[in-house]
Amino acid sequence: MQFRRETMLMETGESSTRQNVESVKASWPVRVWRFYYDGFRNMTSLGRQLWVLILLKLFIFFVILKLFFFPDLLKRDYDNDAERAQAVRTHLSNPDKR
Known about the structure:
Elements: H1 2-12, H2 14-25, H3 28-41, H4 45-69, H5 73-77, H6 81-93
Helix pairs in contact: 1-2
């Protein structure tokens, strides 16, 4: 790998391709991280505002709505895990009979 790296650097010029060669030899999680990091770093202000809007909407969907509009019905209606499991089995096998 060292010979290939030196050959690539000599062919194209060391300063311009050092970062590209470094990313080729890095593992795939590191390359994915660098891809997203560079993308977000070079993002326009409109892109940043849209990402803030997306994250805000996700927060509202998964945190606020869950807390106020989707109560834990099994915990409210049944005392222990055995009763909850039995209720789930009953409703899955006989959905019309409640």
